[in-house]
Design goal:
3-stranded antiparallel β-sheet; single chain; 11% strand; mainly alpha; 3 strands
Length: 126
């Protein structure tokens, strides 16, 4: 989904996911090499036309936000990583994540166990 965007447009969408709604000036200030306001407006218009961002009027001018919920975008991005780096194997990706167990807190491990239990229950396993 987002991986098909040119790098600068991707930076803008990533900023919107990271920080939430932003005005053009805020986007300009947050981007490296601070492009001009007109360049950012052009990219935001392109992103709006492509269906990635939504524009609404406010007292600060137009405010932009991502169209796709961050949870959907995360799932799409993760699916792409699993496809490319783990040959489509979710188990392979999970194994790699668990290999980073030195970074996981006990609460993280408990949450993962609960997620696995729910996935098993949904598949009718015990």
């Amino acid at each position: 989904m987002l991986s098909k965007l040119p790098p600068r447009e991707r930076q803008i969408v990533d900023l919107l996911y990271e920080r939430g709604e932003m005005a053009v000036a805020e986007v300009c200030d947050a981007l490296p090499d601070q492009p001009s306001g007109s360049a950012v407006r052009t990219m935001l218009k392109r992103l709006e036309d492509k269906g990635y961002v939504h524009r609404q009027e406010s007292d600060r001018g137009y405010i932009y936000s991502p169209v796709v919920a961050d949870s959907v975008a995360r799932k799409s991005a993760l699916s792409e990583v699993v496809r490319v780096f783990f040959n489509g194997s979710a188990a392979g990706a999970a194994t790699a994540l668990l290999g980073m167990s030195d970074r996981l807190q006990p609460d993280d491990l408990a949450e993962l166990e609960q997620i696995i239990a729910r996935a098993r229950a949904a598949k009718g396993e015990k």
